[in-house]
Specification:
Helices cover 26% and strands 41% of the residues. It is α/β, with parallel strands linked by helices. The chain has one domain (3-122).
Amino acid sequence: MKKKIKIMNAEWNNNEELILQVEEGASILEMKPMGQMLVDSDQLSFIYVVDKDDDYTYISIPESTWPKLKNALENSAEVYITDQKDQTLLTDFHEELSYLIENIKGNSNYGEAMVEKVEALFV
C-alpha cells in the first residue's frame, strides 16, 4: 500500500497562494510533485501524487478543503503543500483538478456521494 498523507488545513497566503497543511508529523522534504491527481471516492478526497524515496506518496485532500480549492481554480492561484518547515508547489494542480471535476460530473463510477459533492460545489 502506498503511503497516504492527509491535508489538515488550507489557508491563503496573502490571498495569492493556497497553502495546504499536511498532518502533524508528516515531512514533505524531498517530495517531488508528479503533476497527477486521483480520486478516493470512499473518503471523499482528491489525491495528489508525489514521489518520495522512489515510491509514490498520496496527498489526500478532503472535502473540507474543497471550497478553497474552488477559489484557487477560479483565481488561477498556485497551490502548495507545507509541513511548517518546507513548502512545495503542486505542479499541474489546476489542470488535473479540472480534468477530474469534468470526469466526475454525472459519472456514477465515482460513487453517488462523490458525484453529488463535486457537482454541488464545482459545477
